[in-house]
Amino acid sequence: TGITALLNKTVDIANASRQIKPEELDAAKKAGLNPKEFVIARDAIAVIVNPNNPVGHLTLSQLSQIYRGEINNWSEVGGEDRPIVRLSRETNSGTHVYFLEAVVRLANSKDKAIFTPDTLLLPSSEGIIAEVRDNPNAIGYDGLGYVTSEVKMVALSSLATPDQFVVPSAETVTDNTYVISRNLYMYTQDTPTGAVKDYLDWILTPEAQKIVTELGFVPVQ
Question: Which pLDDT belongs to residue 215?
């Protein structure tokens, strides 16, 4: 929605949890814009389950199979004999798009798989936290900054090292050992000037990057 607002010229700064796509860049240029990209923080996508769920780790392949509808019971991944309830952000969320490409499709640009149709789409990160907290069968994903102590984070392993499981944290994002992490962006309509430039300059100062850390995200400075 941030990038859409940028293309519609209704914002001076667009927040985005994914990079602008080539077709969006083309649309921007046709609209007379020359978008500038700023990486202002980093984030991990934490996979979360109910605290009473005994499953504490998954391979990236298993996570992909769950959201593709190929694994449907927790007993298939070492848990109890319970149906898996899948939660996702809605399709207009940058986090949804990132998870689709990085997890469901395992970063294979030729793969056209989508979320299994019985995935429940929720409008907010807070909504996913609440549902996972209350539903022992649920699995969801959220930016690390939204995760609370009411849910349990699952350790993940990469395709390259399927026996090495890592929990998301500022440290594992910084050293690139956690498998699903990403940059967070701000975009402007053109080279920023005036108050917009002042704000973006401030975002990368130690003062602002400290706020990034306090909010549970990972600083870039």
Answer: 87
